[in-house]
Every structure is written in structure tokens, then in C-alpha cells.
Specification:
Helix content: 55-70%
Largest sheet: 2 strands, antiparallel
Oligomer: single chain
Distance between the termini: 28 Å
Number of strands: 2
Mean pLDDT: 84
Strand order of the largest sheet: 1-2
Low-confidence stretches: none
Order of helices and strands: HHHHHHEEHHHHHHHH
Strand content: under 5%
Length: 314
């Protein structure tokens, strides 16, 4: 503990970080709450001297807005589908990596590469993979479709090419592409956390289980998962937080339209809803939507933490 006579030195060392937090974190939060509570607030109007009444009109407009429910539905659906799948896959991959000694570091690096790659660039690659590249007339004037690698694989095994992301594609196909992309993009961080947790488990538990002749499945369910539960709780909570903020991955695949050309906005999320309001100078509505998103994330996180207290073994 720092001596009370020298605490001023500690405050001097902390001052730069505190100042940056106040400017770039605390003040934006306060300003967001202020704009959300000023009905119809616009920064241009405020700069011109216009005054705004205090109230909850922005929240009412957001909830009544016809596109908000669709954005909320898309956000919740992506969370519910991607978080359990990515967590389960990350757990299985982490267990497999932990049991492989040769090339373990190399494999860890390969699995971690998507985490340090730009999400927009990855989205463009996924678009090319699922895309129907184009069509042309063959030798007998028949229309020949040039498909991406995913449809080529499907056709190789006797299936029929699917319109995943192009004009005329279905909502289910679009969601399937997004789930695959988000799960793949979320795996590296979760694998890293779970692998670190696995390597910290005392090996005596496994040695005792082997002496008793315990099966691998029972070791996994009775030793590995319970001892890894704090890390599992962490990746689930952070997964839901990241899922509710999903936006860039959809832009990477479908562009700013947030959907195929014939149905722009089909896959819009709450974060996309917030961004859509900014170019129209609807800062009050955007701030209200941001606070609603914060409330949803807060409630979901509290529920996860409550469940974790019952299930997590520290």
C-alpha cells in the first residue's frame, strides 16, 4: 500500500489514464444519456441555437419504429445461434489442441489468425466463397452458372447450388452464411481462453481418473468441463456481449445495404439501426437506441452471471 504522505505521486502517475478515460469514455456516456433525453435532438440544430425539451420521446420513437423489431429479432437470433455453437466448437478444439504436443504452437497460431484479421476483409472473402459469381452462355446457348467454392463443393457431392447471398436469396440462406462466418470469426479468442484454462488444470485429477479406469467421456464431463466452467462462463458472457454488437461482419458480406440487393436491410441489427440514424442527424434516436441496447446487454449479462453462480466451480 502506498504511504498516505506519498499518495500524490500515485495520482500523478494515474492522471494521464484518468484524463483519457474521462474524455473518451465517461463523457461520451454522459453525452449519450443527455442526447437520448432531449426529444428530437440534432447536433446541427443544437449548433444553430435550437432548444429541445426533456422527455422520453426518443425511446418511444425507437420502439415504435417499424424497423426496430426486425433489427432486434436479427440481433437476438444471431446471438442465440452463434454463441452456443462457437462455445461448443471452441471447447472441443481446445481439448484436442491440449492433447496434441507436436506442432501445438503452430496450430494455435493458425487458429488465432482470424482474430487479428480485418473483419471486413474476411467478409469479402466469405462473400466470394458463397457467391454465385456470374453466368454465361455455353456452347449450346444454355445458361451456365459460375459458383463460388462452397457451391462447387455442394455440387461435387451431388447437391444443387444454393443462392446464399445474391439477388433473390432467402432469409434462411443469409442467416446460415452469417452464422458460419460469426462462429468462425469467434473461435480464435474462445479457443485461446479455453486452452489457457485447460493447461492450468492440475494433472493429478486426470491421473487419478486413469487409475480408476474412468472413460474419456466421463473425464470430459466430470473433470474437464466443471474445472473449466469459469472460463466457459467468461466466453459465454463475452460472446453474448459481442453478439449483441454485431454489425461489421454483416457489412463485410452484404455491404452497407445489410442484406441482398432485392431486400436491403433484411439483416440489419440494433447497431446497424444506430448507424442508420446518424447520417440523418437523428442523434437523439441513435442515443436512445444505444441505451436500449446497453439495457439489453446488461440484463442478459446479469442473467448469465446469476446462472454462473449456480453452475461455475471456482
Amino acid at each position: 500500500m502506498v504511504d498516505s504522505k506519498h499518495q500524490w505521486k500515485a495520482w500523478i502517475y494515474l492522471a494521464p489514464a484518468i484524463i483519457l478515460l474521462l474524455i473518451f469514455t465517461v463523457w461520451p456516456i454522459i453525452n449519450t444519456v443527455r442526447m437520448a433525453l432531449l426529444e428530437g435532438y440534432s447536433s446541427l440544430g443544437a449548433a444553430g441555437g435550437k432548444t429541445y425539451e426533456f422527455g422520453f420521446g426518443n425511446f418511444v420513437k425507437v420502439i415504435k419504429y417499424k424497423g426496430f423489431i426486425k433489427c432486434l429479432y436479427n440481433t437476438i437470433l444471431l446471438c442465440v445461434l452463434t454463441v452456443p455453437i462457437s462455445t461448443l466448437l471452441a471447447l472441443l478444439i481446445a481439448v484436442a489442441l491440449n492433447s496434441i504436443k507436436p506442432l501445438q504452437k503452430v496450430l494455435q497460431t493458425i487458429f488465432f489468425l482470424p482474430y487479428v484479421t480485418n473483419s471486413i476483409a474476411i467478409g469479402m472473402v466469405f462473400t466470394a466463397m458463397f457467391n454465385i459469381v456470374g453466368s454465361f452462355y455455353g456452347t449450346e446457348n444454355e445458361i451456365v452458372i459460375t459458383a463460388g467454392i462452397i457451391n462447387n463443393i455442394i455440387e461435387f457431392f451431388g447437391g444443387k447450388a444454393i443462392n446464399w447471398v445474391n439477388y433473390g436469396s432467402t432469409y434462411a440462406a443469409n442467416i446460415a452464411v452469417m452464422v458460419i462466418y460469426i462462429v468462425w470469426n469467434a473461435l480464435p479468442f474462445k479457443i485461446l481462453v479455453l486452452l489457457g484454462g485447460l493447461q492450468s488444470i492440475n494433472k493429478q485429477y486426470y491421473d487419478a481418473a486413469k487409475v480408476d479406469g474412468t472413460s474419456r467421456r466421463r473425464i470430459f464431463t466430470r473433470i474437464t468441463v466443471p474445472l473449466l466452467s469459469p472460463m466457459l462462463a467468461y466466453v459465454i458472457i463475452t460472446g453474448f456481449i459481442g453478439g449483441f454488437k454485431e454489425y461489421s461482419s454483416i457489412v463485410g458480406i452484404f455491404g452497407e445495404g445489410m442484406g441482398p440487393a432485392d431486400d436491403a436491410g433484411r439483416l440489419n441489427t440494433i447497431v446497424g439501426f444506430i448507424y442508420d440514424a446518424l447520417p440523418n442527424q437523428q442523434h437523439g434516436r441513435a442515443s436512445a437506441a444505444a441505451l436500449i441496447l446497453f439495457a439489453i446487454i446488461f440484463v442478459v449479462t446479469r442473467i448469465n452471471m446469476y446462472v454462473s453462480k449456480k453452475k461455475v466451480h471456482y
